[in-house]
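re: ur question from the group chat, yeah i did fold both. here u go
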Amino acid sequence: MTIAAAALLLIALGASARWTWWRASKPGLKVLCYHKVGVPPPGSRLKDLWVSPRKFRSQVKYLLDNGYATLTFSDLRKAHETGADLPEKSVLITFDDGYENNYSIAWPILKELGAKGNIFVVFNTIGKANLWHSPASEPWVNMATLEQLREMQESGVIEFGSHTMSHPRLSSLEPENAAWELAESKRQLEAALGREMFAFAYPYGDGAYAPAVREKALETGYLFDFSFTQGKTPWPWDRKAGPLDRLFIRGRDNNWDLALQLSRGASRL
């Protein structure tokens, strides 16, 4: 091997080491976290929150082609409460916030391919826009309407959980205000959708590992609470030990990234 070839090989190995292929596989529950499915609008500085329709379809197809069972929150509750084993290869597909593109793009893809998903909804922005974002960094886009949420629920393809009333950083609120965000969103979503809301995701992941905030979430009556921390959580789950972590799927991720997330718990360093 020439010196030039050896140098190129070292550069290639160094670059590939940024991916986690060389790490050992890690056990644990696989929970994918998406936000928006579509094309980022002009001016978006949060492009990693957007996964293109083509990539999303490819990723869901990858899961199904590789024998994964896509679970709903109800499937997970049944296994947790009965002690039954989950399918050997199982995954939860989750979406944060409740965007209209979850209805217009993601849901039809899931329905067509025969997969299931779960959406954490910000109650006060149903039928409005993502008002918690500064338009300077992320232009406002439409959120799903209540009618659209109900249609997705009735299809049996999508289940819902809470993502608070207004998407705040819970640890920055006064305790009584944080408690209200947690409890009122549960109450309002249950009234609007006619189903128990037993799953919750912390906006920004904030408060998931803050004992006082997490205690309020569990006191509110949520069975499952999901973080935004990258990784997998041992299953069966010790609820007292901490929330369920997730695997954030970025707009730049491809199917190799997805495979590494599923096996290693992260795709890149």
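okk and heres the other one u asked abt
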Amino acid sequence: MAHSLLKGKKGIIFGALDERSIAWKTALRCYDEGAEIILSNAPIALRMGKIKELAALCGDCPVIGADATSNEDLEKLLNEAMAHFGGKVDFMLHSIGMSPNVRKNIPYTETSYENFHKTIDISALSLHRLLQCSMKLDAINEWGSVVALSYIAAQRSFPGYNDMADTKALLESIARSFGYYYGFAKKVRVNTISQSPTVTTAGSGVGGFDAFLTYAEKMSPLGNASADDCANYTTLLFSDMTRMVTMQNLFHDGGFSFTGVSVPIIEEMEKAAQQ
């Protein structure tokens, strides 16, 4: 059900690849709530994904390619967005992440540092670049909202999540640090959402992902939060209902992050011990 939460607002959604993407679901939710949007992704992702299908579902909205590791590309995107909207934007979703080490199954303890640098640049520094370019161009309206997607591996060790864990920790720190400066400068709020393990193209590439998913489901009192649930939460953070929320890492995981152990997990362990 739509509530017109974003009526009159304009935003940019980064990272939608296909219908499994959280960014894809968020774009649809924002559009349903009355927002005008622009979709953006890396040029190679535009060729590989289905983003034009999503654009058609969102009122034939513009699709603008941009390499998030390039200040030049980001500035061009923001200028084109403001020209299209006839003014500044109100919200942005940073759903950008990729690790060559994960893709190539290189263990964390044997990491390729060249790959590690790429992971950091693509998955974390891209948020800093986006916020820096936005501030430079004064591209976000006062009380605007920027949300980036994270994962609890930023706080806890999860085998298989590799260098993305370190990168998510940096992403969350950037959100806090830039949120401080952008808040004083323009009342722009910056937050991260620490989402449940979610079946997406990116998430499924993590080693042991199916086990992550099952374990989190059994640990979480409410179960795993779906991509649709995350889209709803992100949309709320874009709305005026959360004007005073900034610099936060917000756990959206059905209670997983604050559960020490659950009865279903204990029962599984007892069952295994009896076999």
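fwiw on the second one: The chain has ten helices and seven strands. The two ends are 48 Å apart (CA to CA). idk if thats what u expected
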